[in-house]
Amino acid sequence: MNLTARSVSRALIVTTLAVVTTGVTALVPIGSASAASTLGASAAQTGRYFGAAVAAHRLGDATYTGILNREFDMVTAENEMKMDATEPNRNQFSYGNADRIVNHARSQGKRVRGHTLAWHSQQPGWMRGMEGSALRSALVNHISKVAAYYRGKIYTWDVVNEAFADGGSGGRRDSNLQRTGNDWIEVAFRTARAADPGAKLCYNDYSIEDWSAAKTQGVYRMVRDFKSRGVPIDCVGLQAHFGTGIPGSFQTTLQNFASLGVDVQITELDIAGSGAQQADNYRRVTQACLAVARCNGITTWGIRDTDSWRYPGVSPLLFDGAGNKKPAYTAVLNALNARN
């Protein structure tokens, strides 16, 4: 964040920028008393964060790191905190690459979302062959050790990731973790709370943005049940990997989860398309979060298009491969500043 530039902008500059986001040219005041010039700074003025997923091996890229340092105030490790990375051998933990990300974020005054403590995918080889009580014991040990290691350094943990099945059943995914017993998610949350009591604890999933979807309803029922029984869940993460359209009920979904007494976070945002269409969809997502008081913030899954897991087929992020701001960036910044 360029604090000097922000101060000058706020105090002295009043200009007008023509921005095309929906096919209509709108005049947007820039540099007014409430406007900020970066995503993180503007989101902070609304009481929210704006973050990005970060890969340790890209931290040596000056363009990548420059955008990260300037624009974002929350950091999620793309892969470095997952189970295979942090416990490659049973009860032998490895934090080197995760530490690189956490230490960089904290040195820049940024917070960290921990991703993820329990997931059916990207398990280490030794865990994939386990089942029953042995697997349950290994899961509890993993969560306890990793969450305790980072205790006090993590804003939110994605405690459990993608535990619900795709399709119309609204039920749990059939995984080795699920087969240890239907209470495994509850156990994971209770274990995480004991290990890191100061962190928010999140359930995170994809394709739960449409309120009418069976998967969304399944997650909603679980969260409602957890809240009714005192299971320590603080938030729901909606990944928001979108195509060229946004569900019309997206804001309703955010609000309905929030009404259960949990925060909601947009955790892995990327949107297909280009130009004005993509910009308008990013605007809609940002405005949906801003409209829900308990929507804490937004994280994009990557920084530049070329860093995205969806590239080269899709260019879904706010910066192009050269690090230039896209129309979608301007749409998001304007939407944030409109609420400041």
Automatic annotation (TrEMBL):
Pfam families given in the database record: Glyco_hydro_10
The entry's keywords: Carbohydrate metabolism, Glycosidase, Hydrolase, Polysaccharide degradation, Signal, Xylan degradation
Keyword Signal: yes
Gene3D superfamilies in the cross-refs: Glycosidases
InterPro entries: GH, GH10, GH10_AS, GH10_dom
Source taxon at top rank: Bacteria
Signal peptide: none
Reactions it catalyzes: Endohydrolysis of (1->4)-beta-D-xylosidic linkages in xylans
Enzyme Commission number: 3.2.1.8
Residue positions of the active site: E268 (nucleophile)
GO molecular function: endo-1,4-beta-xylanase activity
Key word Nucleus present: no
Domain named GH10: residues: 33-335
Family assignment from sequence similarity: Belongs to the glycosyl hydrolase 10 (cellulase F) family.
PANTHER family, per the entry: BETA-XYLANASE (PTHR31490:SF88), GLYCOSYL HYDROLASE (PTHR31490)
UniProt name for this protein: Beta-xylanase
Source lineage: Bacteria, Bacillati, Actinomycetota, Actinomycetes, Pseudonocardiales
